[in-house]
Amino acid sequence: MGIALVTPFLEDGSVDFAALEKLVEYQIAEGADFLCVLGTTAETPCLAPDEQQAIISTVRRVNAGRVPLLLGAGGNCTRHVVEGLQRLDVTGLSGVLIVCPYYNKPTQEGLYQHFAAVAEASPLPVVLYNVPGRTGVNLEAETTLRIARDYANVVAIKEASGKLDQIAHILQHAPEGFDVLSGDDALTYDMIGMGAKGVISVIGNAYPALFTQMVHDARDGRQAEALATHQRLTDMYELMTRDGNPAGVKDLLATYGRIYNVLRLPLVPVTDQTGCEIAAALAAIEGL
User: Fold this and answer.
1) Which of 26, 102, 105, 158 is flagged as catalytic?
2) Distances in Å between the alpha carbon of 123 and those of 45, 77, 135, 287?
3) Which CA distances in Å does 213 have to 15, 189, 204, 250, 267?
4) How confident is the model at residue 251 (pLDDT cuts 50, 70, 90)?
């Protein structure tokens, strides 16, 4: 189970590196299998280049090689992504997560050519990231499979399309060594039942041990235990996304005292109503 790490901010809006260090230690101590740095949940578009580099350096230093690190390194200009990969210091990194180009809405052929250029340039294994709700374009199953067959260093896809028929098609026809990871906490239990290998999780920021155990139980055939955990978290899944990501999980982490509840515009904290419901769901999870 991988964690899509949030970026903690101080009350003045600057990066809270002390909280980030503690969060990384917490995830590792609680059994997270790997960490995803500078993904969607990190509010990466609102981080300056020097902040991004400092975050990478901090996570790499604190991790000290204990778990694999997956780096978000996508963009919507192929040339810029390729140049970034060619300059990348790969020390302590295990792979790169490359989102479908957003806003410019390429065709399926354009998506294929984009990921082909990325695969040819990347010094690390590549994980595709399909999240049409954010990018405006869906990486269709046949395009995913075409990329996976043509480039052995494209090793997985984070699938957040919510299209279970599409995901099933990928799982059925994927070449050996190509894995599917859930990009949606709420669908992770179902996707693992279909053959997915795991998840890059948002809610795992707050519940790394609990969600990791659910994933491992599901993968290892302990379905009753996995289902019980999935159902325990069901109300919280919806609350994590109701007012946008990472607003929900930042509210939850702030309730636990791990970070300040601060986001960067245009993102804002959850509404008072959602915050109250998160507190109620938290109490239910904790059995209070």
Assistant:
1) 158
2) 23, 19, 25, 46
3) 30, 12, 11, 22, 31
4) very high
129 part of the active site:
yes
Query: Which one from 22, 26, 105, 129 is the annotated catalytic residue?
Result: 129
Between the alpha carbon of residue 47 and those of residues 44, 76, 131, 201, 265, the distances in Å are: 5, 16, 20, 21, 11
Residue 9: CA count within 13 A, CB half-sphere: 22
Per residue in 257-268, is it b (16+ CB within 10 Å) or e — as a string? ebbbbbbeeebe
Identify the H or E element spanning 95: strand 95-99
Instruction: Read off the pLDDT of residues 69-97 as tens digits, 9 standing for 90 and up.
Output: 999 999 999 999 999 999 999 999 999 99
Contact 153, 122 (CB under 8 A): yes
Q: Which residue has the tokens 């992770």?
A: 188
Mean pLDDT, rounded, for 227-242:
97
